[in-house]
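Tokens for Membrane protein insertase YidC. Go.
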Amino acid sequence: MLDILIYPVSGVMKLWHLLLHNVIGMDDSLAWFLSLFGLVITIRAIIAPFTWTMFKAGRNTSQLRPKRAAIEAEYAGKHDEASIREMQKRLKDLNKEEGVNPFAGCVPALIQTPVIIGLYSALIQMARPEGGLENPILQPVGFLSTAEVQSFLDGRINNVPLPAYVSMPAEQLAYLGTTKAEVLDFVLPLFITAAILTAINMTISLMRSYQTNNFGSGFSNGLFKVMVGLSIIAPIFPLSLGLTGPFPTAIALYWVSNNFWTFAQNAIMTLILHKKYPLTEEFKQHQRVQREQYRAELKEKKEFLNARRKNRVLMVLQPWRSSELHSENVSMTNARNEKINEEKATRKAIVEKRRETQREMNRASMEKLKQRRAEVRAKKKAGPRHAASDSGSSSSNVSVDSAIDSDRRAHDSSYDGPSDAGSSSSDGGGGDSGGGD
């Protein structure tokens, strides 16, 4: 599977190397060095239109959130078939009217992830051949021949071999004609730069996500917290992996160039997004209300926890009141849990009823489809026997077929799939997210 992903990456690198070395006449090592940047430029330029589509789709989806919330509030508590069908149709028409495609944001990840895997696999195969660097057993890597792989292994930047990495054994470094200190002096600034750019890219993505975060969704709020945690941890990976793992100099060069491209792309696209598709006042008001409700819930939870902690401290300082304070804590906890469980039970009951109604709708739809298909098959089998019948019978069959086709089209237009109507309140999580690349 990975071999398939290597071919497009190796093909792009080969074309850049041929252009720089054979056509322009650059030094072989410099040509391989610049081909890494050429790879970044080529791949990211191809992905850029899809990334912009993702940004735009996220913004459009966020802008629709107040209208979606109004529709869902109108049908809150309703679980009959007519209400579910009407709500699904209105939400579907809203997306169609505004040109929102919920799957538009998936394209960049579907393209970029295989490219990253293919790039890493190609560079690792070239930088770490079978048999080791002392007695390499060279094999073609994708579209790169064994001679080109050997040329890559011989490449040097600032007198540091492209296959060398910090944690490489001393004997292999000596075979390549370098030392750990020389490699470290060259790659450490690269990994530090990659870490800084990663932190900046994550910060830009967080700022954009916060502006459109769905504070009314527990999943969206939890996802945003995870992103905050990742933004703290993510910059550590380039340093830790680069200094302790088998990450050649070529990988370090790619990381820096790719992160710099991401930084420039995110900054430019974010500015264009805010200028060309500014957030509407309707969305800002809706977002403000949701954020205030979310903060009020957090404040209530914090006050509850502080009150319980205060009583626990008083139990230590005033042991003669421990029974009273403990009872107060139990009473507060039970009252709060009872309120939360009651709200959850109410929501769960509505969701379960909607799911059951949706299942009944799906079963009824499938039965109708099966019945119509059986009728069509029966008429096809009976067709030859009725061929000699009068024209009135023939026209009757045609009219029946037309009616069946009409019913099927009507069914297809009203049937919105087996998705759970109760889950329609989630609209993409954090809005304009996904800019970290």
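Residues 2-64+100-279 form one domain.
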